[in-house]
């Protein structure tokens, strides 16, 4: 199982927005060290490498490394529904390929 929580969604929103400027899709590599993205743009000119360490989160748990495909355009639209000061939680069950995103304010 993977789950993490940020008390303020603004950090995650800004990181995703920065990645979206360059790439539309990529993978979240989930590990006990944090969330990592490494992907090329469609023209193979730019490499995006981003890491949010587990210490950046208010709560963090990762029982086993896994990888989840992310459409950053869709994720950005979803995150626009969150206020900057809302809390944001991401959760992935062990045998599931989807991430559940919850916002509360």
TrEMBL record:
Domain of life: Eukaryota
GO aspect biological process, one term: leading strand elongation
UniProt KW keywords: DNA-binding
Domain Proliferating cell nuclear antigen PCNA N-terminal as annotated: residue spans: 1-101
A single MF term (Gene Ontology): DNA polymerase processivity factor activity
Alphabetized InterPro entries for the sequence: DNA_clamp_sf, Pr_cel_nuc_antig, Pr_cel_nuc_antig_N
Pfam families with a match to the protein in the record: PCNA_N (PF00705)
NCBIfam families cross-referenced by the UniProt entry: pcna
Listed name of the protein: Proliferating cell nuclear antigen
Native species: Perkinsus marinus ATCC 50439
């Amino acid at each position: 199982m993977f789950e993490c929580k940020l008390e303020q969604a603004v950090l995650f929103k800004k990181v995703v927005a920065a990645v979206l400027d360059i790439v539309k899709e990529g993978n979240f590599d989930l590990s006990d060290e944090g969330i990592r993205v490494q992907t090329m743009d469609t023209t193979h000119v730019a490499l995006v490498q981003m890491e949010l360490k587990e210490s950046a989160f208010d709560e963090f748990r990762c029982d086993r490394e896994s990888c989840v495909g992310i459409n950053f355009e869709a994720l950005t639209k979803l995150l626009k529904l969150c206020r900057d000061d809302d809390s944001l939680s991401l959760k992935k069950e062990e045998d599931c390929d989807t991430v559940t995103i919850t916002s509360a304010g």
